[in-house]
Amino acid sequence: MPSIRTTRTKPPPEGFEDIEDILEDYARKMRDAENETHEGKRKAESVWPIMRISHARSRYIYDLYYKREAISRELYDWLLKEKYADANLIAKWKRPGYEKLCCVRCIQSRDMNYQGSTCICRVPKAALKKGTVVECQHCGCRGCAAQD
């Protein structure tokens, strides 16, 4: 019988203990969202709270490193490697026009109703009719276009 492989990561870099409490709060919120009852909700709606918490945690780490410069590059890389933040989403936030992107799935054209288009939440509110309520069916976003 083969031995069980376990990944042994290095201990967290210096500065992790400063943000560990906040990351634990996000983990607690994530567990609560995962254990929440899904009765009476559409299939896609049950995932929305999880995606919002994941987005908020990724945005927190992004702001710490790029906006406030409060953490080191070593700690930032370690957090991405340990999946505390979504590296693909952060990579999109660094590009112009994607600063407020809610999830990577909203810019993929393959899952949309019209070929070659993006999600409805990416349409600027100025381009929509007055009183139109926009809600993404994938993540529940109500608008993440850069012009909003």
Automatic annotation (TrEMBL):
Keyword Nucleus: yes
Single biological process term from Gene Ontology: mRNA splicing, via spliceosome
A Pfam short name: BUD31
GO cellular component, as recorded: spliceosomal complex
Key word Oxidoreductase present: no
Subcellular location as annotated: Nucleus
Keywords assigned: Coiled coil, Nucleus
Coiled coil: 16-43
Family: Belongs to the BUD31 (G10) family.
Protein name in UniProt: Bud site selection-related protein
Protein's organism: Tilletiaria anomala (strain ATCC 24038 / CBS 436.72 / UBC 951)
